[in-house]
Specification:
Elements (H helix, E strand, L loop, with lengths): L1 H7 L6 H17 L3 H14 L4 H13 L3 H14 L4 H13 L3 H14 L11 H13 L3 H18 L6 H18 L3 H14 L5
Helix pairs in contact: 1-2, 2-3, 3-4, 4-5, 4-6, 5-6, 6-7, 7-8, 8-9, 9-10, 10-11
Length: 207
């Protein structure tokens, strides 16, 4: 009902109010996972707010969700060009590539996001995710040494972020477990035990 009421008011609003209304409708549809409808309104938003990376990133995400990957990639690139500190855009762009089995390209996108953000930008998605997702892909490629570098960086970041975000604990536990497995695969058994024990501290179900 809120969406329908807002739609009916579009023609009577000033530009600022129009942007607010379009943003509200877009966000509602995205939260409802009605991605085709969200795409329509994010497409309107990038016309009236052509310099806002948020709109391009979320339009790209909706296209990604509806498997329109080629279009999504173009809008992710535009979002990142507008704001290289938009870690969420890098993360979702990598996801888009991974869904297409373009894992090597996804690794490069995650690495690009890491290089463009050597320190954690304020008020944005944690750098943890870029390191963690890159590490997962390297792990799947059985590139144990390179995966370990990113898992260990993810752990370093996440230990701080987890203090204020308990939801990160499960992801932190996974980083420890996969680090343990990587060390095991490299015949470094003491390190493997150490990381496995740390994962147990975070998740009783793995004891």
């Amino acid at each position: 009902q809120l969406i329908e009421t807002t739609k009916n008011n579009l023609e009577n609003e000033s530009l600022k109010d129009l942007i607010d209304v379009l943003t509200l409708i877009s966000d509602c549809y995205e939260e409802l996972e009605e991605f085709d409808n969200a795409t329509i309104y994010f497409s309107k938003l990038i016309i009236v707010e052509p310099n806002k990376d948020f709109n391009f990133a979320h339009l790209a995400n909706c296209l990604n969700k509806t498997e329109k990957y080629s279009e999504a990639e173009g809008f992710f690139k535009e979002a990142i060009n507008l704001n290289p500190n938009n870690i969420w855009a890098f993360m979702k762009y990598g996801d888009c590539l991974t869904k297409q089995n373009k894992n090597s390209e996804a690794i490069l996108i995650f690495q690009d996001g890491i290089e463009k953000n050597p320190t954690q930008p304020k008020n944005t998605t944690s750098l943890f995710w870029l390191h963690q997702l890159k590490a997962h892909l390297l792990y799947e490629q059985e590139n144990w040494l390179e995966a370990l570098k990113d898992y260990e960086k993810a752990i370093e970041i996440c230990k701080e972020d987890a203090k204020t975000n308990p939801d990160l604990n499960n992801s932190l536990g996974l980083a420890y477990r996969r680090s343990a497995q990587s060390y095991y695969n490299l015949d470094k058994y003491e390190q493997a035990i150490n990381f496995y024990e740390k994962s147990q501290e975070l998740d009783d179900s793995f004891q």
